Amino acid sequence: MKLIAFSLFFVFPVFAYSQLDYFPIKIEPFENKEEIFRSFIAYKLPYRGKNYKFYGTLAYHVFGKAYADCKVQNTIVESFKISENNCPQVNFKILKGTRRSFGYLLPYIDRKSGLNVDFMTPVKKKNRPVKFYYRTGLFRFFIHFNSEGFSKINNNICIDFESLAQYIINLDDAANLYGLKIKRIVFNRHFLKKLYASSAGAELKKRDFYFAKYLNKKVNRKYDDLFHVDFEFK
Length: 234
Fold this sequence. Notes:
This protein is 34% helix and 17% strand. By secondary structure, it is an alpha+beta fold. Strand 6 (123-125) and strand 7 form a beta hairpin. Helix 3 (70-86) crosses helix 5 (161-177). The longest helix is centred in the N-terminal third of the chain and has 19 residues, at 2-20.
């Protein structure tokens, strides 16, 4: 009996104290607010893939024109993956990306922001997609296209407006996956009618992409066999 009384004497205060020390936790409703964070680390674009390749070994390995924002890099790779399904047998070329500075992007300098990429315009020869064209950069400067998109040197070579229109749509779809959108496209303004007249032209027009206007003759000449894309965050 004395043992029981002795036990109660020491155990009861413990329970009493534990009851007094208990504070219920009130759970507040949690609202998930995604913070916009951007990494300024320069990510190198892949040199080649199943249906694409970087154009220019020196530009890629020596001059360092092959970098992009991480989301832009993912967008481009994803767009080529999508193109495997709806642009069969078409081979795309990346002309250049962004330069880097000590491994980082410079967000306030246009050509070093990592949000712009130049692509080669897909080309057809005898109505078939061309894989090995412009083997040397020097030869590219002698290529001229007429108002219908045909080469002035070889009538068998022409711009593949069908694949180009579809690829821009694929690029937009991929950009949406990574929280980006296409801000601007620079392409020869004389070819826009041909682009909208393609099978994917209706969808292209529906998405209302901004194509740079009022380009002078020199710039138009530059952007007939390539097109420039600027991205921005949603």
